[in-house]
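Retry 2 of 3 after timeout on previous attempt. Resubmitting structure tokens to design endpoint.
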């Protein structure tokens, strides 16, 4: 599992380096912790997150967020995505795939290359887990 996490982090870093459009890199903290990468796509943005849950679990989320508008330094967004994850517990391997949605707000400071976000990411688990409501998180990212 460590090799998979290392490969995913490497791919994320490579995508950040070769990209020529506005982007942001940081963390998203909520249920678990995530390394978060955002890439502007016209007026909208894509988000790729690599997260850890507990000592033996990880997941990858990909979301396309639509810009819903702004009010001053606040931007509002929502969009669909997918999430896959794996974990081990008591020597049993678990795999999870889910459809996710995300809705939130983001503060982009003009005086510093930092943005802060607060969002909710509910999930529909495709392999029998039902619906997940606990996807609230605070994001802190460096824009470059």
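Retry 2 succeeded. Sequence:
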């Amino acid at each position: 599992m460590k090799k998979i996490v290392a490969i995913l982090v490497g791919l994320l870093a490579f995508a950040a380096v070769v990209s020529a459009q506005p982007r942001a890199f940081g963390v998203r903290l909520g249920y678990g912790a995530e390394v978060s990468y955002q890439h502007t796509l016209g007026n909208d943005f894509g988000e790729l997150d690599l997260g850890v849950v507990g000592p033996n679990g990880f997941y990858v989320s990909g979301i396309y967020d639509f810009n819903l508008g702004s009010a001053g330094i606040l931007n509002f967004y929502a969009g669909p995505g997918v999430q896959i994850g794996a974990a081990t517990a008591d020597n049993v391997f678990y795999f999870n795939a889910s459809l996710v949605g995300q809705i939130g707000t983001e503060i982009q400071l003009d005086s510093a290359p930092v943005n802060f976000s607060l969002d909710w990411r509910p999930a529909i688990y495709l392999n029998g887990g039902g619906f997940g409501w606990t996807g609230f998180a605070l994001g802190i990212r460096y824009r470059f």
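Attempt log closed. Helices lie at 2-18.
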